[in-house]
Amino acid sequence: MSDELSGFTVGVTADRRRDELAALLERRGARVVLAPALRIVPLADDTELRAATRACLDHPPNVVMANTGIGMRGWLEAAEGWGLAEPLRSVLGQAYIVARGPKARGAIRAAGLHDEWSPASESCEEVIEHLQRRGVEGQVVAMQLHGERQPECTAALEAAGATVIEVPVYRWAPPTDPAPLHRLVDLITGRLVDAVTFTSAPAAGALLRAAGASGDAVLDALRSDVLAACVGPVTAAPLRRHGVPVAAPTRARLGALVRTIVDELPQRAVNLKVAGHVLTLRGHAAVVDGELRPLAPAPMSVLRALAATPGRVLSRAALLRTLPRGADEHAVEMAVARLRAGLGAPGVVQTVVKRGYRLPVD
């Protein structure tokens, strides 16, 4: 058990591997908010996949672009159900197979096929550049899609003279229950999560769509106070286009993503020496002389405001602005009382008569 992320709250937008990612984060002490932005569903009507498979059998591809492990396995399983598994495997076995990442490579090898090349970046763009350099004029390229069409990749290959067969194995759909995602939007805009993880590029777009009119507020939070942590550069691209600074590991793995968060979040903690105590602000908690003290949102908001200008007196009116709309000055007094009780360290929050409150920094 590790406490590297104790006091921090992390939102998880993944669906398929959310439990695995949550366990990795919780093992390091984080509080996790699960809010799947999308879910993968098999093609309800597999006529498109069957037509694409038939096209590959009628016009054997010279090149196969395998994007995901789940997609390649799903394609071969569907072909098995139609009695086409052996003809398809035979056709794929004659092709130059490019695996975008290790999971796609694993699925290819498990099927008894051989992959020829993989991009270091695991990006579709690098695959396209490789195929353009290699030359695809007059060739048939079968592109296994990962959730959505990739019109820019298809267009680039067609411009290089290839005929592209798009193979749609699954698609993205909204979550069955959208309530957790809407709650995550509120937590992001309220700065009540410290980081949000993304494991697919469409998840970022889904989060912003769910935000609706609050989309700009979500982007403001992600550009400043809330860390956007993406599993890799492909996932990060949509957020970067919105000007969001993204933390992403060099290798697109869940373990590497968690290590990136472990490296980033503690650096954002605020450290102060106040009234003889060592005080650290971490997400939803304060660490007082090495002891973690979880705090409710209102006391934590007051503490953050006081810590932003340590030593300076903030009036009740100034602190009121940090609390939810509709609160009054009595709510400030209550929040301060709860803060003092939660910190358990006398003298950290000092009352300055008729003026307000301050942190008496050493």
Automatic annotation (TrEMBL):
GO biological process: phosphorelay signal transduction system; regulation of DNA-templated transcription; uroporphyrinogen III biosynthetic process
Entry-linked Gene3D superfamilies: 3.40.50.10090, Winged helix-like DNA-binding domain superfamily/Winged helix DNA-binding domain
UniProt keyword list: DNA-binding
Pfam families: HEM4, Trans_reg_C
Regions recorded as binding DNA: 269-361
Domain OmpR/PhoB-type, residue spans: 269-361
Entry-linked CDD domains: HemD, trans_reg_C
Record flagged with keyword DNA-binding: yes
One GO MF term attached to the UniProt entry: uroporphyrinogen-III synthase activity
Name of this protein: Uroporphyrinogen-III synthase
Lineage: Bacteria, Bacillati, Actinomycetota, Actinomycetes, Micromonosporales
